[in-house]
């Protein structure tokens, strides 16, 4: 059973629904698995707790 972890900033629920459906479909196609066996975990991190290129995302 694949478990996919997505680390990201906060997104609205509709975008997350679309993302998990697409990730699940990719595993179903690539590994020929039943969709029920694919788990996707989304961990959201606030912009003040994430950085890129030496700057907080909140400061971008």
Automatic annotation (TrEMBL):
Keyword Isomerase attached = yes
Membrane-crossing residue ranges in chain numbering: none
The record's listing under InterPro entries reads: 4-OT-like_dom, Tautomerase/MIF_sf
Give UniProt keywords alphabetically: Isomerase
- One annotated GO molecular function: isomerase activity
Q: Domain named 4-oxalocrotonate tautomerase-like: which ranges?
A: 5-59
What name goes with this protein? 4-oxalocrotonate tautomerase
């Amino acid at each position: 059973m694949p478990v996919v972890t997505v680390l990201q900033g906060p997104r609205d629920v509709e975008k997350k629904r679309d993302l998990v459906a697409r990730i699940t479909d990719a595993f179903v196609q690539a590994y020929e698995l039943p969709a029920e066996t694919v788990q996707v975990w989304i961990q959201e991190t606030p912009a003040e707790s994430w950085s890129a290129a030496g700057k907080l995302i909140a400061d971008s």
